[in-house]
Amino acid sequence: MDYQLSIPAVLRRTETLFGHKTVVSRRPDRTIVRHTYRDILERVKRLGTALRQLGVRPGDRVATLAWASHQHLEAYYAIPSIGAVLHTLNLRLHHDDLTYIVNDAGDRVLIVDESLLELWDRVRPHVNVEHVIVTSRTSIVGPSVGPSVGPIVGPIVGPSFSSGASAVPGASAVSGASDASAVPGAAGNPLIDYEQLLAASDPAGFVEWEGDEHQAAAMCYTSGTTGRPKGVLYSHRAIVLHSLAQGLRDSLALAEDDTVLPIVPMFHVNAWGLPFTCAMFGSNQVFAGPFMDAKSVLELLASERVTLTGGVPTVWLGVLQELEKNPGAYDLGRLRAIVVGGSAAPPALIRAFKERYGIDFVHAWGMTEMSPLGTLGILPASLRNAPIEEQIRYRSKQGTPLPFVEIRARAEHGIVPWDGQTMGELEVRGPWVASQYYNVPGADERFTGDGWFKTGDIVTIEQSGCIELADRSKDLVKSGGEWISSVALETALMGHPAVAEAAVIAVPHPKWDERPLAVVVLKAEQVATPEELLAFLAPNFAKWWLPDAIEFAFEIPRTSVGKFKKSALREQFRDRYQTS
Ligand code: AMP
Fold first, then answer.
1. Cβ atoms 533, 550 nearer than 8 A
2. How far is the CA of 267 from the centre of ligand 1 (A)?
3. 234 partner at 20 to 30 Å CA-CA among 142, 223, 450, 546?
4. pTM of the model as a whole
5. How far is the CA of 374 from the centre of ligand 1 (A)?
6. For residues 516 and 487, is the Cβ–Cβ distance under 8 A?
7. Is 418 a catalytic residue?
């Protein structure tokens, strides 16, 4: 049959088989709210119906600016279910970038957390969003909910539509508001209260979109560290196949008996696709709200008996420190794996979780352009009884490609051999890899003439197909014409007992062009000298790889998704080393 692989098809399965499974959400006031999938999907239908009545049509972009929550999940499901495109906005971006992105995407409607209205207020005058729907724990009532909305009397409710469509059933104009135009959401329309919109909407009126699986279901923008952010569209088919692949036993093995807590923001590549995968396999989901600090994460992992979680290494570095500070305070007995990705996980981190807490790390490599998952470091059968050293060594690499993800690496003279030694830029292709950027006319240099995507990551590939990432091409240190892997140096430094975090960057050098500089954050109450740290590295690296200098810092700047921001470090140190 020519069966369409679509988000509605996934949700029909969730509804019929897993309606009793749960979605748990931590609200901004730290209280916990629980729903079943049945409740969530009823609310999804209400939201879908209401969005249709607001004039949203298939292909329209509906943006979200929100923390991780069940309402955000409802948007994840409702927007593609009516054929519209879920566009998750990165709430850590500067308002100028957000303005650019909203305009580039042509977002028509926005769903925003009340706590983020202030940020939205800076974007609003410069964009053309017709309706703004505000999620809050309760209806927004009272004289003021923040600078963006000005004086509000009575709840914010559904307005009539700019498009001239009929009003949201049951919603009335802002009652008692002395001047509705004083509280514009966008295009002069009042803000709409999410809960009231849902309450007034009839789930029986929901009409599921039946379209082509190649249509876009979602979109995200790249973080744009060089140049403007670029939009990436995810088709229904891509998301469904990505979810199927995530569920496989040699993958994340997601199943009905799992409880999943993504510590990945929901604006970062669809929370790594997990909300869709959990819906497909009936796994319970837990959302952390705005609380991503180590203590809050650990509390939720323990209280919700989470079996699988995922996030960038910096999250787990913090969690490890908290576990060490408060031994025995958190019961992680149910946690079977931590998925770590976004940047390289240091072997010392992987080892500490395994040895002290019996928890396996699964190293995942991927990109915004890849929905995001490309490779996974699942221990092969041949290593299951190997010495722990060997196991950690394997788990520190980025692993082998998922089914249908094809990989190759290219250096100056062509495709490199799979010998585990020769470095080259990784190229990929597959059903959930982007074929172009949104709104970028003409051929983009990131796509090869023969249909592969150039990742910008420099890797070696072993005979087994396991990749090891040496660097982003822009982060490589090119010393005397040879490449030095900053990732290898920094993950090794993070194995020193006194080191909390380390980042290695290239600094200019008069003779060698570039040399490595290590920026190190020490753990609380620990001391180490540069000489000690260099001596610690020395046995495992060629002499010319060792950093020329080690600088100590109180913290390493982070990107909006929690990775080390090396561009900021390069800027900070470039001048100092230029003159030396
Ligand atoms: P983003 O598009 O923001 O998800 O960033 C993608 C980039 O993050 C990749 O191109 C890699 O440079 C980096 N990255 C992702 N996963 C890993 C990993 N497991 N190890 C090292 N780098 C990673």
1. yes
2. 15
3. 450
4. 0.88
5. 10
6. no
7. no
Largest CA distance in the chain: 75
Place of tokens 């954050």: 521
- Cα–Cα distance, 175 to 157 (Å, whole number): 9
Nearest CA residue ID for atom 8, ligand 1: 342
Distance 365 CA to ligand 1 centre (A): 6
pLDDT digits (tens, 9 = 90+) for 455-497: 999 999 999 999 999 999 889 899 988 889 999 999 999 999 9
CA 203 to chain centre: 30
DSSP states along 471-529: EETTT-EEETTEEE-HHHHHHHHTTSTTEEEEEEEEEEETTTEEEEEEEEEEPTT----
Q: Can 369 be counted among the known catalytic residues?
A: yes
For the CA atoms of 254, 239, 454, 476, what is the dihedral angle to 10 degrees? -40
Which residues in the chain land under pLDDT 50? 139-185, 580
Task: Give 558's strand partners.
Answer: 564
**Distance between first and last Cα of the chain:** 69
What SS3 state is found at 68?
A: strand
**Catalytic annotation present for 483:** yes
The answer to whether the CB of 265 is under 6 A from ligand 1 is no
Three-state SS at 457:
strand
Q: Which of 74, 369, 501, 551 is catalytic?
A: 369
The CATH code of domain 7-17+34-237 reads 3.40.50.12780
How far is residue 190's CA from residue 373's CA, in Å, rounded to a whole number? 40
Helix H, strand E, coil C: the string for 295-340 is: HHHHHHHHHCCCCEEEECHHHHHHHHHHHHHCCCCCCCCCCCEEEE
The finding on whether 200 has its CB within 6 A of some atom of ligand 1 is no
Look at the chain and count its residues: 580
Check if 292-472 and 477-572 are the same fold. Answer: no
- Which residues make beta-bridge pairs with 478? 483
Q: What is the pLDDT of residue 481?
A: 85
How many Å lie between the centroid of ligand 1 and the Cα of residue 369? 11
Domain spans, the chain: 7-17+34-237, 292-472, 477-572
